[in-house]
Write a structure and sequence with these properties.
Blueprint: H1 8-17, H2 21-24, H3 26-38, E1 46-50, H4 56-64, E2 69-74, H5 77-86, E3 91-94, E4 106-112, H6 121-131, E5 132-141, H7 147-151, H8 160-169, E6 172-180, H9 184-196, H10 207-219, E7 230-237
Parallel strand pairs: 1-2, 1-4, 2-3, 4-5
Antiparallel strand pairs: 5-7, 6-7
Helix pairs in contact: 1-5, 3-10
Amino acid sequence: MMEEAGGAFYDAAWADKWIDCSRLGPSLRHRRRVILELVRGLEFRSILDVGCGNGANLVEFLAAHPVPRVAGIDVSPEGVRLARGRLPHGDFYELDITAAHLGRTFDLVLCCDVVEHIEDDLAAFRHMRAMTGRHLVVTTIQGTMRPSEREIGHVRNYTRAGLEARLREAGLIPERTVEWGFPFYSPIHRTLLERAGPGISEGRFGPARRVLAALLYALFFLNSSRRGDILIVLARPAP
């Protein structure tokens, strides 16, 4: 995760809170599944994860697509440190995507659950555009923002039209958009999570939480891929 104000909040989150949920959280696992379906058939030999956090997304993604060049950027030094430990062959950098970008391009750029944390999202998208050689995948959330989401740094929830318009403004052309999650993730699971509090998904998952996460993951296969609060957009750079 990233935010233009700095990485201290996210350092603490990656160190103590988002240890297992980034890998085992049922909705996050489904987002990765949908992304893999979305990019099936595309050609890419390099991947950049914008807001890579602890590297969990890249580890899972590389299991399906073992490309020769992988990199990640994040505003959190702790996230970058953890990602380097998980993927020592990758290139990881502490970087604020609203202020700068790497001086090279990648065939596939991923940005998962990041832009809802960023005030100046247009600047972030423009920097992503500068690093996108072929394809960009952005995931975020729409619908009503819950109080707990503000507590973890969300500054907005998008609409499909609003996200696609922002991408076009930054020089990117949306090619396909998936809305996923109705009804078991959204509104049911999101509402129950709000009532339970953030602690239910934080820290290490013991046996009981692992079983519950696996059961929810199985249940979420029944969600619609045409409705829901999860937005996933595949885009390409404009000529």
